[in-house]
Inverse folding.
């Protein structure tokens, strides 16, 4: 029989969503009547908001009537003689932060992080969904110790940098408390954050499941657990050795380091205990906070699906539907980051990140209530974790203020994008939308290419007049194809709209597929 327990995501200092029915949920014995009440005694405010439900199949969910923004509230949840009381509760806006390591990237490691930590006094709070990828007794024991935290120099150091910058901007502009739920893990595919049923729906995306399950079909769970535990133990010792080496020689090469202390085995065996397994973090993280009432989602992911870029549109759009269904609102805003420029020095330009970006751009055009922050200019060469998260969080906040809060117009929030291409007199004419004009920030606009056959491209000269860009090349007499910043890592990004946002990458022959092989990822991911 289930014992009475409110879900771990509810704690003192939490933020509950304003203006919507507030879901309070957890576990209780079948048939038990559970009640929840919010009381607030803030000056000028007298409210007493309560509701109840009966536990069924060991679960209960109560929906409290909507409240406007306020602070200093108390929430009490009761089942029989047992009760849980949470204090210092705020009613504001709650955003769930999803994705992988660039969403996880901590504020203390961000370029502007120290300045924020030492000087800010934001009205932002944070809950980090616990990062354990296998549900055993230790999982539930540790989950009970998770809680919401308010901003201070120590606690906020480990918050998502992108999420914090986003939340701080929203709080300043809306004058309400912003709650952030971190639900992310480095090195993870979108398939890790979806249910088995959702991934298996499509024949292509189902390959994530079948390719994972095939090597494990004859391996007992106990052996899988043992192998993963051995990997964790080995990795802990390896990282201690690596830290000592870096203290003496911070510039040591990756290959030389491994020759000295042994091979890095990341990501370890991908089995039933691995965070990299399909559907695993959907079960162990996302489901632990579902269906907490939200304002919307913020998402930064795609790097770990670059080995299957041709199916990313299907995978990503299905993830959005899954999350909205699980949180009970098909119109929940879904804001996300288009991948920035990136290439490892050891790799050729596979142009597979271009396809991920293209899929992300297509999602914005075809999936309702989505908005994409263009960050092609925010990458670092040979570094998968760019340290300057300020523009990323700020651009996401712009989108929220325009598209969700209606406090700004589209010209403030949206990056310029190609809206039309025509060919005339040996030239290509590109029309740019979302801005009255684009400008080149130095003498020569970089990144434009022309082709006659769609295979052989040549650098193009660009003449910019307002929102019209005319392209020509001495090597292309009859252009039929155009592309812009069609590379994993552009060395220069210098065409921007008047709102300071970069022109989004594009190509005229969308839908081309490529084959991808062998990228070297381990060092950069481990360094996070």
């Amino acid at each position: 029989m289930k014992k009475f327990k409110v879900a771990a995501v509810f704690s003192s200092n939490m933020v509950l969503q304003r203006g919507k029915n507030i879901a309070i949920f957890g576990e209780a014995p079948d048939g038990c009547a559970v009640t929840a009440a919010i009381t607030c005694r803030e000056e000028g405010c007298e409210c007493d908001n309560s509701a109840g439900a009966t536990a069924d199949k060991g679960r209960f969910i109560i929906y409290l009537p909507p409240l406007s923004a306020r602070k200093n509230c108390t929430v009490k949840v009761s089942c029989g003689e047992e009760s849980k009381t949470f204090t210092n509760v705020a009613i504001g806006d709650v955003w769930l932060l999803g994705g992988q390591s660039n969403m996880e990237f901590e504020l203390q490691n961000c370029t502007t992080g120290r300045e924020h930590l030492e000087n800010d006094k934001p009205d932002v709070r944070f809950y980090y969904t616990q990062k354990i990828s296998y549900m055993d007794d230790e999982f539930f024991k540790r989950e009970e110790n998770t809680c919401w935290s308010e901003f201070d120099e120590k606690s906020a150091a480990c918050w998502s940098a992108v999420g914090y910058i986003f939340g701080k901007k929203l709080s300043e502009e809306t004058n309400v408390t912003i709650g952030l739920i971190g639900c992310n893990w480095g090195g993870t595919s979108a398939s890790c954050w979806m249910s088995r049923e959702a991934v298996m729906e499509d024949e292509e995306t189902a390959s994530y499941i079948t390719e994972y399950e095939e090597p494990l079909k004859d391996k007992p769970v106990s052996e899988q657990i043992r192998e993963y535990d051995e990997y964790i133990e080995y990795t802990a010792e390896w990282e201690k050795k690596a830290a000592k080496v870096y203290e003496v020689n911070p510039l040591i090469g990756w290959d030389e380091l491994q020759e000295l202390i042994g091979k890095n085995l990341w990501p370890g065996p991908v089995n039933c205990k691995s965070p990299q397994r399909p559907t695993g973090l959907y079960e162990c993280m996302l489901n632990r906070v579902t269906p907490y009432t939200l304002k919307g989602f913020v998402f930064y992911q795609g790097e770990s699906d670059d080995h299957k870029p041709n199916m990313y549109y299907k995978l990503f759009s299905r993830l959005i539907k899954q999350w909205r269904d699980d949180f009970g609102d098909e119109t929940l805003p879904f804001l996300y980051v288009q991948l920035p420029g990136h290439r490892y020095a050891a790799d050729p330009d596979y142009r597979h990140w271009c396809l991920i970006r293209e899929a992300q751009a297509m999602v914005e055009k075809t999936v309702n209530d989505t908005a994409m922050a263009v960050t092609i200019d925010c990458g670092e060469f040979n570094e998968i974790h760019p340290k300057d998260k300020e523009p990323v969080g700020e651009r996401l906040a712009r989108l929220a203020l325009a598209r969700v809060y209606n406090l700004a117009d589209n010209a403030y929030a949206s990056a310029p994008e190609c809206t039309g291409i025509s060919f005339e007199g040996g030239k290509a004419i590109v029309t740019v939308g979302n801005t009255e004009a684009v400008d080149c920030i130095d003498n020569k606009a970089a990144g434009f290419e022309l082709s006659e056959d769609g295979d052989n491209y040549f650098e193009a000269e660009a003449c910019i007049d307002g929102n019209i860009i005319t392209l020509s090349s001495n090597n292309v007499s009859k252009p039929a194809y155009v592309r812009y910043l069609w590379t994993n890592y552009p060395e220069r990004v210098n065409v921007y709209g008047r709102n300071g946002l970069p022109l989004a990458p594009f190509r005229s022959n969308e839908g081309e597929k490529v084959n991808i092989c062998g990228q070297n990822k381990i060092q950069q991911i481990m360094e996070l």
